[in-house]
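Input chain follows. Return structure tokens only.
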Amino acid sequence: MMEHLRMNGAYWGLTTLDTLDKLEMVDIKEVVSWVMKCQHDSGGFGGNVGHDPHVLYTLSAVQILPLFDKINMLDIDRVSICALILRYVVSRFSRSYFICMTVLSRFILIKTSIVINDMTIVTAVFCCVGALAITGSLHHVDKDLFGWWLCERQVKSGGLNGRPEKLPDVCYSWWVLDFLLA
């Protein structure tokens, strides 16, 4: 009854073990083999073997493999494209998609209108850029283009919005200004 949640359960269980420095308690080959069996030809991952791919399970799989230094087993371009497609199938905006792309080190801000578009909220971008900063990967950010996107958040009243065509909000102003201070 819960087998479709296995990939997410594995992620949470394995990260808990990793936090407790007990990851060696699992059979690495068995876990990695199972994760890879959940991958579809499209590049995405299902929640378990034989289940349809989903952006959330793809995210979990992409987060599990680095725990064992096995991220190199992924065809990153194929997984990235699948995650992009699944993002649109699931919803027009999905934080799981952004997190997945960040983990794959393919979150190259603004260089493709697919990544940051009219539905992108500045708070999600903040989280992704923060993840890039933590991992020492800010070199992926096109700073000029990103700065321009941030400037476009300012509306006629002087306030800042979280995405195009939205009203200004002090909360979004904080997120945008934090970028500019960094």
